[in-house]
Task: structure prediction
Amino acid sequence: MSNSDSPQSGAPAATGLKRYIGRSEIAFLVLIALSFIGIGYTDYSAAGSIWFWKLLVPLFGVTCIVSEWHRNTDKRRVIWTQALHWGALYGVMELVFSHLIEARLDAPIIGLILMLLLALTTFLAGIYIGWPLCLVGIFLATGTIMAAFLESIIWLALFAALVTIVIAMLWKKFFPGRGQENG
Result:
């Protein structure tokens, strides 16, 4: 236990949800919420949702940089690694949406491919950043499967988001510090 975690340090002890959810977890919960919106939007209009997913990529990248910033002394490496990681996803998205490929795929298929690409990239980032980001990737993949097979997925996606949040909170309670060793 560090001095800042000690009850004698003068800082009030964390209570309730604050004990289980820190700033990083809140950021990842926001990404899950935005992904939930994106899943619903893609289900409603795959072609119209392209801009939304392209805006999410840099947001995911910045969130990963912020998450890694305090744990890594080589700040330039953090920026370059995340820029290359998320830049590769953005480049593949551009290929998917290019006229050559777009002419061969229907708009709903493009939306599902986009969601799968974001899910995979997010999960892979979670492998070296921490488990909460892996959960975001799993949520995106689950939402993609639901969008592919179900016409109206809002309630099931909400349920998946809630289950993801509960798992994250339980993991943090029973396995504190696990998945945060890297860096």
Notes: Helices lie at 17-20, 23-44, 50-69, 75-97, 99-102, 107-129, 131-149, 154-174. Residues 75-97 form the longest helix (23 residues). The radius of gyration is 18 Å. The chain has one domain: 32-172.
